[in-house]
Structures
1.
Amino acid sequence: MTTPSSPPPRRETPPFWRDPAKRALLFQALMLAALFAVIGFIVSNTLENLDARGITTGFGFLHDTAGFGIVQSLIDYTPQSTYGRTFLVGLLNTLLVSTLGIAAATIIGFLMGIARLSPNWLIARIAGAYVEIFRNIPLLLQIFFWYFAVLRSLPSPRQSMSLGEAVFLNIRGLVVPAPVGGPGFVWTLVALAVAVIAAIVLVRWNRRRQAATGDRLPAGWISAGIIVVLPAVVFIASGMPLTWDIPKLGGFNFSGGITVLPELLALWLALSIYTGAFIAEIVRSGIQAVSKGQTEAARALSLSGGMTLRLVVIPQAMRVIIPPLTSQYLNLIKNSSLATAIGYPDLVSVFAGTTLNQTGQAIEVIMMTMAVYLTLSLLVSMFMNWFNARMALVER
Amino acid sequence: MLHNNKTLLCSATAIMATLLATGSAQAGETMDAVKERGQVVCGVSTGLPGFSTPDDQGNWEGIDVDVCHGVAAAVFGDASKVQFVPLNAKERFTALQSGEIDVLSRNTTWTATRDTTLGLNFTGVSFYDGQGFLVKESLGIDSAKQLDGAAFCVQSGTTTELNLADYFQAHDMSFEPVVFDTSDQTVGGFEAGRCDVLTSDTSQLNALRIKLSDPDSAKVLPEVISKEPLGPVVRQGDDQWFNAVKWTLFAMINAEEMGISSENADEMKGSEKPGIARFMGSEGNFGEAMGLPADWAYSIVSQVGNYGEVFDRNVGAGSPLNIERGLNALWTEGGIQYAPPIR
């Protein structure tokens, strides 16, 4: 009997193209090189073509005088300002409507989401109808509805609807009194800041104390008291240095006060009501995702209804709510660019609209505008991811 | 009403076109493309009576439209071979730069920036205009000097927006610009009372006033605050096409001066007067260098008409706008419309 002699296992290294790890590395390097080559080609080709067609390129235009007016600006702006300034004005207007929209949509969404779970038949159905109506109508139509159907039918400035001869609503917008701080008013603001910091410190101390001893103070009520009382005392002590600039009708329109443009109102209403409908569904699903056993367990530990909601249900629901909520916030910011349809001076209308047209530098302007939305979205995303990590279930 | 999306789309197309296209515009390129396609693609407004607006059958009409018909008549001997692309003020230059249209004839003001930095060339002036103000009668205002603090409805991406700021700075007054994408929207805003004043070129104000539900409730103020020479635009770098569009307009103006009209063009074709014979192409061949047939000018006049006919039919005495010739009269009649001779 002869035993077949098995050859000894050979240990030589295979050529690199047969090693999956090295091959993957090679392909990635090739891919990257190809990507850079394509980008390089596109950039150089674009510059060459623009030059050949006699189209001016570069970002020098940002220092040129803009020469057109913008109806709403959060910073100083005149037609003598530069195109760079129009970019900032547009950016701030976009941020303004996005911030207002996110705040309002969050409040509406949470209220409606909770209302939808209400045991009260009427409240639950109203919330349900709200969600189904507003999330199923295109946003642009809702903007047109608020702007053309609702705000366009308001009276002229001379026939304004008024509230106590101080707040006026007309086709030119909502005019409200503007607070004007006197010389000592800054101390009230300082007091407010001190009070807020004190409240935060108190809440944190209370939490540590509770963890250590089990005793707890009603920190929420005390904080609220500090925040209201301290600035109020300082305000009265400094002789109430605050006056109101009441709008007055004169010439063509109201002068004085703060005017909220109808374009801003329409966009804000439409964005927050539309996005609010989606957030309501997210909140409802988040709450329903917390199993009933959790509530029953909390009740068994004799936690009150409010505490059950605040300490048991909401923290767990938030983990489900936050990731889709982030998407809604990002959508709202991007949707705010529909402003241009009704003439609200946001970034797309002012910069990617008028500035682009007056300078003709389409590539630079569109690239800058896209970079802004990308940056804003990434920042919101980063913040929400951080917030999500904080709210996540800490596993011990 | 999705102008915004359309603008972005246009810009994106332009960007892609410039990103990927190779080579530059060459003489003859546009003419060859037009001939191969069999029609001229012409950018016009989204609807401005007298200049470019669709009638109740959907046929475009107006001065700017007739310039396009003239170009088609010169190239093909058939004025109907035009495809019209309605564009708003923001889209117009990108559409031309990207090659989406061959010629832009859309009440566009000739300015230094537009002529020198956009890679475009203005081919002449088809209408001398100026910016004015339309106000409600009920305001009781009769001069632009009384408009301090008023709200103005204005179309975005226009020279109007810039002139408005200049005027109010020069007169040390304040204003509130309410900016819309189309002229229809500015009229809507004006009618609803969103703004006190509608500002645009005076010819447009007359046209827009007629569209109001009650035209007598508004009036145009006497002040004209700017120069607005409106004319056709082509891409820079293609001189043959530039010449063809430029001389189409010149042919219309020359025809009026020589007394050639759409009605008498056929009789005059046999004329032996040297100037008219050159115009009709029976003497010399002035179309050849532009890539046009010898009777290019005859085709324009017989099918579209001379400048005077085009003016009267669209914006002048023969139209509801009833605008006076004024600056747009021939130089021989007190105006400034003047064309170099065909020789």
2.
Amino acid sequence: MHETIFSFRNVRFRFPDDEQLTLTDLSFDIHRGERVVISGPSGCGKSTLVYLLNRLYPFNCDGIISGSLQLFGKDAEEYAPGEINHRIATVFQDPDSQFCMPTVEEELAFTLENLHVPREMMKQKITEVLALTGLSALRHEVIQSLSGGMKQRVAAACALVMEPEVLLLDEPISHLDPVTAKEFILWLDRLQHELDLTIFAVEHRLDLWDSFFSREIQLDRSGSIIGDKLATAHFPVLLPERASTMVPETVLKVNGMAVKSHGKELLSGLSFTANRGEIMVVAGPNGSGKSSLLKALCGIYALDAGSIQAPGIGFVPQSPEYLFLEKTVGRELAFSGIASSAQLNDLMERLRLKEIENAHPFSVSHGQKRRVATGAMLADRRTVLLMDEPTSGQDAAALHELHRLISERADEGVTFLIVTHDMEFAESLADSVLLIKDGKMTGKYPAQDVWNHAELLAEHHLLPPKGAGRLAESFA
Amino acid sequence: MRNLLHDMNPSLKFVLVALSMFAIAFFFNPLTPFIFWIGILLLQVFMSKVNWKAWSLFMLPFALGAFGYLWTTIVFAADTNGDVVWSFLEFQVTAEQLETALSLAFRVMAFSTLSLMFAFTTDPVKFIMSLMQQLKLSPKLAYGVLVGYQFLPVMKDQFQQIQQAHRLRGAELEKNALRRLLGMRRILIPMLAGAVRNAERSAFAMEARGFTGEARSDYFEVIKLRKVDAAMTAVFLLLLIASCSAEYWF
Amino acid sequence: MLKSWKLKEVVLMSLFAVVFGIVYLVFVHVSNIWAAVIGPLAYEWMFGIWFIVSIICMNIIRKPGAAVLSESMAAAIEVLLGNAVGPRLLLSGIVQGLGAEAAFALTGYKHFNLAVLMLAGAGSAVFSFVYGYFISGYAALDPSFVALMFTLRVISGMAIAGIGGKFISDGLLATGSLRGYAISRSTKGDARA
């Protein structure tokens, strides 16, 4: 066995404002060269664990820690601020909030300046790490103009320029679409082989990682270890199959839709219809016009040509809180004054919002926020609902909650248009799939015709759903 | 020649701008700010590459402001004794009043031109880097400000999305200024809540890369004080002295 | 002074400054046109909006320096955003921040109730007025007109920055996103007086 680099003995951690522990009696060792993943549901303290290793906690949150935590054979608290960070580097989850300088080169230089690298050596180190990571072409690019996947690679390059021994990964793919995430993982895999890094990751959706990890430590909701084993490939979250409750009655009719913005054509020639209770998945590469389609349908963008016929179209953005205007959930639903109080009561009952009726809409969980936003739309009699990337960054429990929300509403006759890259999620719900590319419609297909059409999916930057996984689990 | 103002050390340029403003503020004759204004304009014409169309667009509101200031100073002047040079309705304008009014209006023009000169010839990131290197600004503050700068496009987009979402719910931005001010809360709260989240993430990302806020021992991009800066300082001071002593020559 | 500051608090001030920078853009747009018609009075009634960021940041972070640092950073951000008034804003930002800071210092950084926040708004107004008196040459104006400007500015500072700042920081506190900041920890009367 290789040298032990991290050693946890009965480590407990709690935030000063909390009564209960975030991490409970953790005891384990991490050895050099291991590829460990910490798995568990959202809120189980996985990120806290990462922040204890790179010494962001306990200082940054004034957290209370007990037990013994050793890093490279020395007590964690003996390290001065910043001392450990070049040995233990981190890549975080949000590609938009990891940078402080305009260009890739300047960001790398910022990192080297932090480490007091002499100026003469900076240029060379930057050139080397860019060559190693295959990012040389991006050297002078403005970071904010890069795609999410490229930003994550730049973040990793910034970590690697410090020549670390350990790479911490805090859900690094949760903001990436599956194809981009896969590419990122393969890229990381190559780097790990070349550099012989120790990898310590936290992740709640492991299916895309295949056999990247060698060991998996599972945490439960209370932050205790419930499993420490050899890692195996994971299947995607298994969602219940749904019998369609679509009614043959056209509620949405789009004819020859075109949208322009600042003289640029975003969408052109889109024509399709949707039935009452139909769940339609809208998919296509990034920048193909999916979001523009949603915005045009609900009237945020004006149409350049064509027409939309529908009773009332509602929109649930990726951040549902953008819709919120009031101080309680109850008043949020009642905002427009369209629905009667009996109707509101019934709606809150069905959406399970009664228990949070008096809570502040910003303070509830993400899944609850989405239910509040859905409720607000339905209270305004908007019976065609648009959802933008609702599965992004969601753990298994949240996916089940989302699945139930959509499925139950569709049973009640609500029509859905859901933009997503998640084909497993799509397969479990969709009646139909609308594929878009370069602002044009490839076609609207019955859902089952799409899943095995690997070429068609690949053309639209999508991975086929892991149907094999579903089968294997149902036989198990 | 056309690069001189762009090449100047940003901190030095800032200090000179501040110094000029404080000096000019002591003068209430029209000549001093007028000469200074023309001087700054000439500097900009000959020593910078400025998009004059954009410049005029930015200058327009200031010119309007200067006009507003002109008539306010005439109507609400402190000193109303002296020879009347002009009168209309019940207002009587004395020579002294007119002089002060012109002086203050030129002052607005001079300061605005000075500010625009700085804004048009200074790279924002270099300015912050220079504040750190020349004026010993704390890296914690300097990089804190730079993070904010990086977030500008993200937050502008967020602002737009929230506005669109609110419009969808039938909550329009009010036309009436006071209502608009009160209605801002609805946009501000989600924006600020997002800012709290992003602030923590960004700060963590920086600290995870070894940033402690302590002084740096070496900079990748060194911003220096050079000969051109000495020359430009001389030019600025000359202009300043000429303007301040203008009254004695004429 | 900066030693005791967490980086996330500094970055928070910076990002708040960006949010208000975007808001200011919406406002200053309107007020410049007015300025031509009704002169410097156009700005006075809404001057308080320039002070609000220092009061919100101080109310959230509650450390000496929060007011002056946040207002200065807000001004620096304005410069970075290419605000045409750029370098002038940096100076007036520091002065305004000092005004609010003085009010908090007077109360020993112990109380953050509405009265203190309004006092801080008034502090910013007074400091910025003295600075403006000098830089913009208010001395040339009729004293009663100057008095009117001063009164308007102080009222605006107390109402928009003081009450508005309280209103917004309470609104933000209610969303639950300020966990881990001083404002969340003070559950006693002071915070919501």
